[in-house]
């Protein structure tokens, strides 16, 4: 729905009233910004754009502004935030609103004014006469969290609009790194567009440029544990400490990653395929796809030894035993140096 409205706005097709509600701020803000960008000239913004907060301003003041003619322009925009009276919530209203005047305006809006109501609420009260009138006469858009499928489709649309192409693995990895936050995804896409210009965006570029979460950094750290690369593992670990990540949290995510590898390895031994494993473990198939090579190259006895060691270490850290940073550092020295192979096997 939002994509359709954005297309209409770019074609200079405007509605006299927009009602934007929901808790997905990115969709609301982008729609609002597009209305301003497409409906009035940049030099007109100072004169033909008004912004109100209905928690402080009576709605009749907003309507009075809507009914005045644009100043040296074709149209004007009036934005009104927080119309709490459209919900069932009982807030401590600082002002009283003349909703009758608002209802009359909805029935007969001024054609040279675009009124944008921004309601950052999950739900509106559908029983109210005013809400029903708005849903009948205004262009109403509900900005709720998108599903994973919808977000990936949105990513592809943004890439296509920019004149780029993106591989499926690139889309999957971007979603894995960033998650469902549209604002963060938009920022990372802008970075990828600048780097790739009109080129194809694949998973290698995504891995190179996109900011990674704690889980993703530890995903890389566990890679080095599997490869027994002590220097690189310690480098990532020290970087995480510099980023003020808590040692106990680092340990917990390492343990979680190792347990997941063990679970994938166990299911592979039982003959399950990638999609079946993803279904059993209730994770995205792409995560399983990335984990399978690690599971195949990781000895079962070694994984179990690490998981048990970390469980014991978790108890020590939570009991205030020793220096947290040094105890986790000792984990790497214990498992990534050849001198300790016999200890691990036993």
UniProtKB/TrEMBL annotation:
Domain DNA polymerase III delta subunit-like C-terminal positions: 215-334
Protein origin, superkingdom: Bacteria
Regions that span the bilayer: none
Residue ranges of every copy of the DNA polymerase III delta N-terminal domain listed in the record: 18-143
Pfam families assigned to the protein according to its UniProt record, in alphabetical order: DNA_pol3_delta, DNA_pol3_delta_C
Keyword field: DNA replication, DNA-directed DNA polymerase, Nucleotidyltransferase, Transferase
Catalyzed reactions per annotation: DNA(n) + a 2'-deoxyribonucleoside 5'-triphosphate = DNA(n+1) + diphosphate
Classification via InterPro entries: DNA_pol3_clamp-load_cplx_C, DNA_pol3_delta-like_C, DNA_pol3_delta_N, DNA_polIII_delta, P-loop_NTPase
Gene Ontology MF terms: DNA-directed DNA polymerase activity
EC number: 2.7.7.7
Top EC class, one word: transferase
PANTHER family per UniProt: DNA POLYMERASE III SUBUNIT DELTA (PTHR34388:SF1)
Protein name: DNA polymerase III subunit delta
